[in-house]
Each structure stands twice: as C-alpha cells, then as structure tokens.
Amino acid sequence: MKSNILVVDDEPIARQSLSDILRLEGYHVTAVANGEAAVDHVRKYAVDLIVLDLKMPGMNGLDVVQVVNQVAPDTEIILLTAYGSMETAVEALRQRVHDYLFKPASPNLILESVKRGLERRELKLNERKQEDEVLVYRTKDGTEVDLMRRTVTRGSITESLTPAEGHLLKVFLGNSSKVFSHRDLVLLVQGYDVSQREAQEILRPLVSRLRHKLKPFPALLDRIQSVRGTGYVYDAEEN
Fold first, then answer.
1. Contact assessment for residue 25 and residue 49, using Cβ atoms and an 8 Å cutoff
2. Measured distance CA(166)–CA(58) in Å, rounded
3. Planar angle of CA 210, 236, 195, nearest 5 degrees
4. In sequence order, what E strands does the chain have?
5. What confidence tens digit (pLDDT) does each residue in 27-43 have?
6. Reported pTM
7. How would residue 130 be classed by pLDDT, with cut points 50, 70 and 90?
8. In this model, does residue 153 exceed pLDDT 90?
9. Domains annotated on the chain, with CATH
C-alpha cells in the first residue's frame, strides 16, 4: 500500500518540486499551500507523513504541528525551513517533529528523511499493537515475563525491571529474529530519534543492565545477541 504524504508549502515551485520528487518514489502525495488547508486535510483524511514548511502566512509550521499532534498523533512530520535557528529546531523536536531540514534540501536527503519517518511510524504502530496483544511471555524452561508488572520469574527467583529495561525486553520478545539498529531501539524504548553514534551510547549501558538482571534466566539472556556494526537481535526459541 502506498504511504499517504502531505506536502505543505506556500511557494508554488517548492510545493510542486517536493510533490514530484515524492510521487516518483511511488508515494501518494497531496499538496496544499498553507497551514489552514493542511489542518483541514489532516482532519478529513489519513496522512502517514507531512513535509511541512516552517514560515507561512497565517498558521506557521509549528502551529500546524501542534494541531496535528492533537488530531493525528501517529502522523510523522518533517519540518523544512530556510530561516532556521537552534531555538526553532529545539522547539520542533520538543513538539515531536521527526526531522528538521534546511532549504534547499537535496532530493536524496528528503527521501531518506521520509523513509526513516515512515519506518519510525511503522515501528511505533507495531509496538502499540504488541502492547495490546501480549502481557505475559513464558519460555520452555518455565521462565515467565510479566510485562505489566515488569518482572521476570523462574521458580523462587524474581527480578524486577525498570520501565526502560522492561520496555526493551518487551521489544525483543515481541520481535524474535528481527535485527534492530541502535537507533530503532532507542526510538522504541525512549521515544525519540537520535544519531547512530548517540543511540549506541544510550543503548549499551541499558542492554548491559538488562543482561545483568537476566543472568538467573539463561533462556532469555542467551538469546539477546549483538549484531556487529548494526545493533541487537533476539533469537527465536527453538521448537
């Protein structure tokens, strides 16, 4: 299924150029000229991702972000601007903007950002689906993971996990054999997007603490494996 992308820019040439670039990649694209039209479209139609200009007459980009976060919180947003500042970038990230790009951004940069934004959206939707489906996991050796209580139990041994540790273990258990990058895991566990280098610095101590707590539970510990140069994978339990 084609992803639905909304392009919002008051400059006709920029709006058309962005739309053409995205359509050539196979996306279903709608383009509007101002923030008011963007908000009206999002209220009426499903939008997976918005490429949004910051400076526009009437509602500016950050105004649109605030409304979209209320009416369509699963929609990812890429903010484009020719008048960026560090303060604006920080505010954009605080408001859950996926990416912040300066004009003129190259087509490759835009397409890469769109791809990552859609992947991020899919990861979050899958994670929410898993939360609704499974709360307790059991391994063949009798180890039980209670995701609601954040406990791991086997026999008389029980270990409590922190929220971050529990969330990380939940991601692993719900995605056996799937290789996650460091960035993917930080996004799923912590809720924000960072560079690969920053993600490694955040994730390594968290994985180390989780592994330490799982030492009494080899059925779990032995399956959390590093993937060199990429991230981590949770090996599926053998039948």
1. no
2. 44
3. 50
4. 4-8, 28-32, 49-53, 76-81, 99-102, 136-138, 144-146, 151-154, 157-160, 179-181, 224-227, 231-234
5. 999 999 999 999 989 88
6. 0.57
7. low
8. yes
9. 4-126 (3.40.50.2300), 134-234 (1.10.10.10)
